[in-house]
Amino acid sequence: MRAVITVLGKDMVGILAKVSGTCAQANANVIEVTQSVLQEFFAMVMLIDVSEMNCDLAELRENLGKNAEGMTIHVMHENIFNSMHRI
């Protein structure tokens, strides 16, 4: 099972480290990451494996929110993401 994490906000040092560190604490494996910085803005999409997680997605979402510092972070199961983006 996989989930998608999106992060948007003002660029600052350590965003990827904070998000991936929180995933590691939850035992969620980072499969793929794409990120971009457009002037002072940061955008990232991360695909994670949640099959061995030691918490549920709601708890992961809450823990990521604690480190958000002005960022917008969304976490959703891959099935929901795919359903939302189907044409």
Form type = globular
Mean pLDDT: 92
Q: Which structural class should the secondary elements be placed in?
A: alpha+beta
Q: What fraction, in percent, of the residue positions are helical?
A: 25-40%
Count up the domains. 1
Relative strand content: 35-45%
- CATH structural class: Alpha Beta
Largest sheet composition: 4 strands, antiparallel
Helix count, DSSP H or I runs of 4 or more residues: 3
Oligomer: single chain
Q: Reading side by side through the largest sheet, how are the strands ordered?
A: 2-3-1-4
Q: What would you report as the Rg, rounded to the nearest angstrom? A: 12 Å
Order of helices and strands: EHEEHEH
Low-confidence segments, ≥5 residues, pLDDT <50?
none
The fold-level CATH name is: Alpha-Beta Plaits
Output the CATH homologous superfamily: ACT domain
Q: Topology, pairings included?
A:
Layout: E1 2-10, H1 15-25, E2 29-38, E3 41-49, H2 57-66, E4 72-77, H3 78-84
Antiparallel strand pairs: 1-3, 1-4, 2-3
Question: Can you describe this structure?
Answer:
With 87 residues, this protein is α+β, with helices and mostly antiparallel strands. It has a single domain, classed as ACT domain (Alpha-Beta Plaits), CATH 3.30.70. 32% of the residues lie in helices and 39% in strands. It has helices at 15-25, 57-66, 78-84, and strands spanning 2-10, 29-38, 41-49, 72-77. It has a four-stranded antiparallel β-sheet. Strand 2 and strand 3 form a beta hairpin. It is globular, with a radius of gyration of 12 Å. 17% of the residues are buried. The mean pLDDT is 92.
